């Protein structure tokens, strides 16, 4: 199994990969640029390519994550910035050899037509992916439900992908905190979630997992991550999920708090020991 964490690029893309290897990660996630801006970054292509080379040599898989302001259903005043930023993220991820770029399912608040948000999101995907011919995918992430139920159900993610003009350029990223907080997975019904996801074809296109515990109970609709041993999801429930055959060799990336008393290195070691993986 491939456990890793989110890693800063303050030392560059190659530096992030080297740090991942240092802490025992077999995967990592990174922001390709400033996470608080939609600006297009003129990145160091040599650094990105060295990152890709290093990851191949050390059998490390990577995913990127869009900046926080990225909104697939943004209004006309900002959507062009979002589209340009997404293309920039895809270019950087591609040069880094990453599987793809994670983007949150869009939620249009206060819409008079409940379908408008879906239509905007599909239009954004179509416009961006019509200009993209690299190997990196856009990875659509499920929501926790803090802004309403939109984007929490596996059926929605599968349907949005199918309705785009370029479904082959879209994959999925499952966030375990989000799927628990939304109540889709309540900790005890993994077999049901697995069966539904398999029937829908969701797991067929799942490319990464954000492996997070939840600070709040299931159906809380609150997106607050917790460390794997210390959240509301029980260890045996997490272990049941991790033991599922639907995941194959995809990366499990921590987006959990990391402090001196329990670093991501400690958490990766904990996960490896829990799953009986020893180097």
Structural key phrases:
279 residues, alpha/beta, 8-stranded parallel β-barrel, two-stranded antiparallel sheet, 9 helices, 15% strand, EC 3.1.21.2, nuclease
Distance between the termini: 12 Å
- Total number of helices: 9
**What's the rounded overall pLDDT mean?**
96
Percentage of residues in strands: 15-25%
- Cα radius of gyration in angstroms: 18 Å
Helix and strand content put the structural class at alpha/beta
Shape: globular
Helical proportion? 25-40%
- Provide the spatial order of strands within the biggest beta sheet: 1-2-3-4-5-6-7-10
Number of strands: 10
Largest sheet: 8 strands, parallel, barrel
Order of helices and strands: EHEHEHEHEHEHHEEEHEH
Ranges where pLDDT stays below 50 over 5 or more residues in a row are none
Family: Belongs to the AP endonuclease 2 family.
Cofactor: Zn(2+)
EC number: 3.1.21.2
InterPro entries: AP_endonuc_2 (IPR001719), AP_endonuc_F2_Zn_BS (IPR018246), Xyl_isomerase-like_sf (IPR036237), Xyl_isomerase-like_TIM-brl (IPR013022)
Quick structural summary:
With 279 residues, this protein is an alpha/beta fold. The protein contains nine helices and ten strands. The longest helix is centred in the first third of the chain and has 17 residues.
């Amino acid at each position: 199994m491939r456990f890793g964490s989110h890693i800063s690029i303050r030392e560059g893309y190659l530096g992030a990969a080297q740090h991942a290897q240092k802490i025992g990660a077999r995967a990592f996630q990174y922001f390709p640029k400033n996470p608080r801006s939609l600006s297009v970054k003129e990145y160091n292509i040599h650094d990105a390519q060295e990152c890709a080379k290093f990851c191949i040599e050390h059998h490390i898989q990577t995913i990127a994550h869009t900046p926080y302001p990225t909104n697939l259903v943004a209004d006309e005043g900002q959507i062009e910035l979002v589209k340009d930023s997404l293309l920039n993220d895809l270019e950087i991820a591609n040069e880094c050899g990453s599987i793809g770029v994670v983007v949150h399912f869009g939620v249009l608040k206060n819409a008079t037509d409940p379908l408008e948000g879906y239509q905007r999101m599909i239009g954004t995907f179509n416009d961006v992916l019509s200009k993209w011919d690299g190997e990196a995918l856009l990875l659509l992430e499920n929501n926790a439900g803090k802004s309403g139920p939109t984007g929490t159900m596996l059926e929605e993610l599968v349907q949005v992908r199918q309705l785009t003009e370029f479904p082959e350029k879209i994959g999925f990223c499952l966030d375990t905190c989000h799927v628990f907080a939304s109540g889709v997975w309540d900790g005890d019904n993994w077999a049901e979630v697995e069966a539904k996801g398999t029937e829908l074809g969701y797991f067929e296109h799942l490319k990464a997992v954000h492996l997070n515990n939840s600070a709040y109970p299931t159906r809380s609709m609150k997106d607050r991550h917790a460390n794997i041993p210390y959240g509301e999801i029980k260890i045996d429930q997490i272990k049941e999920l991790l033991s599922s055959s639907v995941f194959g060799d995809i990366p499990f990336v921590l987006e959990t708090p990391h402090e001196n008393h329990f670093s991501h290195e400690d958490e990766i070691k904990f996960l490896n020991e829990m799953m009986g993986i020893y180097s």
